[in-house]
Amino acid sequence: MSERIEQRAPGSEGEEDQIVPSPSPVPEPPERKARSSRRGESVFRFLASGSGVLVVAAVALIGLFLLIQAVPSLMANNANFFTSPEFSTGDENNLSFGIRDLFLVTVFSSVFALVLAMPVALGVALFLTNYAPRQLSRPFAYVVDLLAAVPSIIYGLWGILVLAPAIEPIARWLNTDLGWIFLFRTGNLPVLSGTIFTGGVVLAVMILPIITAVSREVFAQTPRFQIEAAKALGATRWEVIRMATLPYGRSGYIAGSMLGLGRALGETIAVLIVIRASTSPMTFSLFDGGYTFASLIASAASEFSQPLPTGAYISAGLVLFVLTFVVNALARVIAGGKVNG
Amino acid sequence: MAKRIDLKDVDIYYGAFHAVQNVNLTVIPRSVTAFIGPSGCGKSTVLRTLNRMHEEIAGARVEGEILLDGENIYDRGTDAVAVRRTIGMVFQMPNPFPTMSVRDNVVAGLKLQGVRDKKKLDEVAEASLRGANLWKEVKDRLDKPGGGLSGGQQQRLCIARAIAVQPDVLLMDEPCSALDPISTLAIEDLIADLKKQYTIVIVTHNMQQAARVSDQTGFFNLEATGKPGHLVEIDDTEKIFSNPTEQATEDYISGRFG
């Protein structure tokens, strides 16, 4: 790496001299300056590309680590890894674990959170960029960003102690009156609080800031000439949003939502606290309980001593890793490189 | 349809800044009125007060009267949105809605006015595109995005969009300054056609263009940077360019300054 830079440096000498012609009376100082700036150039290039390589290597190594640790346990697994709802690793010689329920609880809680957060985030972002008076818009945006700074353990405590009892009547109403929809029928828990429903609401609050922040940035960049085009046709404020802001910002909004989804999928401690464990399998209801990938691994972390049982949890982690990777990649594709948050 | 505009003692402010001072002029229906003058003289500002677009800048306000066929568009009960629906505007940079199809771009204004009849919209789209001399070039790509056209085509698309609502007045803010000479010629020919039906006000940096397309020309000037701009004189284009009343106009059009 450094060799290549070494070789390139003399080659670029001639070019640089042409670009920066030194005035003939004082030839000495500019030349020295050029040489030192060349050295600075190669050092900086090395540092910058080095950090870039480091990040890629870190991600690749994490993936590799997960894979290597997971394979022996997967070989020793007696249950179908993808379809078994049980996850028992107590007996090292009789591992029997599957990710069916982990996957379902993870996706159900995250997608439900996304369904709740997306419209609210859209409303907040449009309010901040189009409706709020300038003096209010800045502090309000700070408050929304502050939501992201609250530690997730606090969200967990708040979720189970305050939110869960508060929204239980809503859950009860949904269960009683709309129970014929499979999402709202009685799940595998004896109660209606501490369910995927409760966890989803907590997750929605947690991912609201990222979706709002990304959408707000993109909406605020709507080109002025497009806004003027709509206004000159006699568009009202809402019509300007519909004709100019939303078409321009749609991809950013969706990408921000995908980033939020990625966060929800990986959220650990709040979910562990809020969503109750259940002994029976997931029934595709929002009033089910259970573990997500992340909360299961966290709950078992204190018992990671034997390699084979540990490997079972690592294989679950690997699936989560791939899942968030896919969601984030999707966000990039949709945004077309517009998002950097 | 084509309406007359009278400006009476119009003063324009941006906050404390006095941008344009005491403008009195009349725009005659079915003719082209051009505003010329050096940068910063307020000609675009005056144009943007005619459909209340200048209000988009915080702190902007107008004193005096701007009458559209005798009705003050700044009356208390008059909504800026309503004013803009009857006064079309074409901007310096072509600004079609990039993701909307060519057809939807043209009828965007009609849709805002609540027209939903598909057949009617299609008819208006075709008539407006023909009116903007663009129909032949885009008739096979009406459903493609408007952002895919060339710069000159985009500007004619914007003109089609503006005339689709049959506006009382058509305002053009340096409509050719971002275009190549061929496209400029196409737009100038189009202006000559459009003035049979519409009242047109055009701001231009290009004095030859003003001479070519307009019937009357107003010359704006400012005494110094920071001072308000004002209308030096407005008269038949032929007279302005051959024998203007004011010395300042003579100096400007003969290229002595500006």
From TrEMBL, chain A:
<comment type="similarity">
    <text>Belongs to the binding-protein-dependent transport system permease family. CysTW subfamily.</text>
</comment>
<feature type="transmembrane region" description="Helical">
    <location>
        <begin position="312"/>
        <end position="335"/>
    </location>
</feature>
<feature type="transmembrane region" description="Helical">
    <location>
        <begin position="187"/>
        <end position="214"/>
    </location>
</feature>
<keyword id="KW-0812">Transmembrane</keyword>
<protein>
    <recommendedName>
        <fullName>Phosphate transport system permease protein</fullName>
    </recommendedName>
</protein>
<keyword id="KW-0592">Phosphate transport</keyword>
<feature type="region of interest" description="Disordered">
    <location>
        <begin position="1"/>
        <end position="36"/>
    </location>
</feature>
<feature type="domain" description="ABC transmembrane type-1">
    <location>
        <begin position="103"/>
        <end position="331"/>
    </location>
</feature>
<feature type="transmembrane region" description="Helical">
    <location>
        <begin position="43"/>
        <end position="68"/>
    </location>
</feature>
<dbReference type="InterPro" id="IPR035906">
    <property type="entry name" value="MetI-like_sf"/>
</dbReference>
<feature type="transmembrane region" description="Helical">
    <location>
        <begin position="102"/>
        <end position="128"/>
    </location>
</feature>
<dbReference type="InterPro" id="IPR011864">
    <property type="entry name" value="Phosphate_PstC"/>
</dbReference>
<comment type="function">
    <text>Part of the binding-protein-dependent transport system for phosphate; probably responsible for the translocation of the substrate across the membrane.</text>
</comment>
<keyword id="KW-0472">Membrane</keyword>
<dbReference type="InterPro" id="IPR051124">
    <property type="entry name" value="Phosphate_Transport_Permease"/>
</dbReference>
<keyword id="KW-1003">Cell membrane</keyword>
<feature type="transmembrane region" description="Helical">
    <location>
        <begin position="252"/>
        <end position="275"/>
    </location>
</feature>
<dbReference type="Pfam" id="PF00528">
    <property type="entry name" value="BPD_transp_1"/>
</dbReference>
<keyword id="KW-0813">Transport</keyword>
<keyword id="KW-1133">Transmembrane helix</keyword>
<dbReference type="InterPro" id="IPR000515">
    <property type="entry name" value="MetI-like"/>
</dbReference>
<feature type="transmembrane region" description="Helical">
    <location>
        <begin position="140"/>
        <end position="167"/>
    </location>
</feature>
From TrEMBL, chain B:
<dbReference type="InterPro" id="IPR005670">
    <property type="entry name" value="PstB-like"/>
</dbReference>
<dbReference type="InterPro" id="IPR027417">
    <property type="entry name" value="P-loop_NTPase"/>
</dbReference>
<protein>
    <submittedName>
        <fullName>Phosphate ABC transporter ATP-binding protein PstB</fullName>
    </submittedName>
</protein>
<keyword id="KW-0067">ATP-binding</keyword>
<dbReference type="Pfam" id="PF00005">
    <property type="entry name" value="ABC_tran"/>
</dbReference>
<dbReference type="InterPro" id="IPR003439">
    <property type="entry name" value="ABC_transporter-like_ATP-bd"/>
</dbReference>
<feature type="domain" description="ABC transporter">
    <location>
        <begin position="5"/>
        <end position="247"/>
    </location>
</feature>
<keyword id="KW-0547">Nucleotide-binding</keyword>
<dbReference type="InterPro" id="IPR017871">
    <property type="entry name" value="ABC_transporter-like_CS"/>
</dbReference>
<keyword id="KW-1278">Translocase</keyword>
<keyword id="KW-0813">Transport</keyword>
<dbReference type="InterPro" id="IPR003593">
    <property type="entry name" value="AAA+_ATPase"/>
</dbReference>
<dbReference type="GO" id="GO:0005524">
    <property type="term" value="F:ATP binding"/>
</dbReference>
